[in-house]
Amino acid sequence: MQKSLKDLINEDGFRHWYEGELIRAFGLMALGVLLLILGVSALEVFFNLGPGWPLDRLAALASSLIGVFLAGLCWLKFSSLIARAELLANQAVCSNCQAYGRLLVDDERLDTESLERVLNCTCQKCQHRFVMSCA
Ligand SMILES: [Zn+2]
To answer: Which end of the chain is less packed: N or C, by CB atoms within 10 Å?
Structure first.
């Protein structure tokens, strides 16, 4: 079962969660770049094989398409991870004491009108309550 955003942030703290999201996102981006290189290389093999190699050309074309497709998926996941992490990081400042990332998520809910995930938070430094939201 997948953990909620509240549990993930509260387990090790916001800063640790944010660092993990960045590492995960940029790891996916690196994987995507490698897959794109694989796809382009397979495409080059496809064009360089002569007409006497139909199965090899088909395998090269399939490898190229799969590599580019998976690179696209990595890029989409990277974009969604980095967008959510940055959106929450920009809101993780207590408006009362300006403490960054020192928060506990009290409650997590889905706003039915905006379809955003709303996090009710408490500052660990001054106990001020504030709200963060993300898609
Ligand atoms: Zn505070």
So the answer is: N
Domain assignments of the chain as residue spans, ordered by start: 5-134
Q: Give the three-class secondary structure for 119.
A: strand
Q: What is the spatial distance between Cα 113 and Cα 135, in angstroms, rounded to a whole number?
A: 12
Q: Could you list which residues have their CB under 5 Å from ion ligand 1?
A: 94, 96-97, 99, 123, 125-126, 128
d(CA 87, ligand 1 centre) in Å: 19
Ligand 1 midpoint to CA 131 (Å): 12
Per-residue pLDDT reduced to its tens digit, 3-58: 888 999 999 999 999 999 999 999 999 999 999 999 999 999 999 998 888 899 99
Interaxial angle between packed helices 54-91 and 14-48, expressed in degrees from 0 to 180 and rounded to the nearest 10: 160
Among 132, 67, 125, 61, CA closest to 99: 125
**In this structure, what token pair is assigned to residue 116?**
């955003």
The HSE-up count of residue 39 (CA atoms within 13 Å, CB side) is 15
Pair of tokens at residue 35: 């897959």
